[in-house]
Design goal:
The chain is an alpha+beta fold. It has 6 helices and 9 strands, in the order E-E-E-E-H-H-E-E-H-E-H-H-E-H-E. The two termini are 37 Å apart.
Length: 217
């Protein structure tokens, strides 16, 4: 029986086009706690998914919107994907991919009445525009190879000795205000995750407390 892998979530990288097939990364988080007696804990794993152009076209989603959607990928592990194309830790040959909707809890039973019900409805109406606003902010800068938590990037002491110029900071701040992220990917070493260039973008992203940023190797 063939090995099976199922990965659920949003793409964590932009699509890489190789002609008849495409690749992108997805991440699955590990469980917070292991069973009693096991001294190890599972960690997040990045998968590089390989899917055919025909499979992608069936989704009817353009490439700009692809990273904003949520998917279920069912496939098989593969060790033959070229190293430069497999940016994740495990390669997955996609056998089936489908878009899935985020789960929304629906209130069941007798509707609430009075001021409490009215307050609940008002809160719901306020949350919906916020969700729409967050969705619009997703932007993938050109050249992005992956998305990485800001805290995982190691900054050499040499960079920490100076503060980026105001003009450079302003450019990055304007991009964050408009697009929700920095204007260009941050350059890092793929092996050590050490910052190589783009300190000004890292600096502003940290000041703005971004959870993750686009990176390039």
């Amino acid at each position: 029986m063939a090995h099976k892998i199922s990965v659920t979530g949003r793409p964590t990288s932009s699509i890489q086009d190789y002609g008849k097939y495409l690749t992108f990364d997805m991440e699955e988080k590990g469980s917070p706690n292991a069973p009693k007696g096991i001294p190890f804990r599972s960690k997040a794993i990045t998968y590089t998914v390989v899917l055919s152009l025909k499979q992608f076209n069936k989704l009817n989603i353009n490439r700009e919107e692809f990273s904003q959607r949520r998917f279920l990928v069912q496939g098989e592990p593969c060790l033959d994907i070229p190293f430069e194309q497999c940016t994740g830790e495990i390669g997955v040959i996609c056998m089936q991919i489908q878009e899935i909707e985020d789960k929304v809890k629906e209130n069941k039973g007798t509707p609430k009445k009075g001021s409490r019900a009215q307050k609940s409805e008002e809160n719901k109406q306020q949350e919906e525009p916020k969700k729409e606003e967050v969705k619009k902010q997703i932007f993938v800068p050109e050249g992005t190879r992956n998305w990485m938590p800001l805290e995982d990037i190691k900054v050499p002491e040499a960079f920490l000795q100076f503060t980026p110029g105001i003009a450079k900071q302003k450019i990055v701040e304007e991009s964050i205000e408009k697009n929700g992220t920095v204007d260009k990917p941050i350059i890092i070493d793929p092996e050590t995750h050490e910052l190589v260039d783009s300190y000004s973008r890292y600096y502003v992203a940290k000041q703005r407390k971004l959870d993750r940023v686009p990176v390039h190797y």
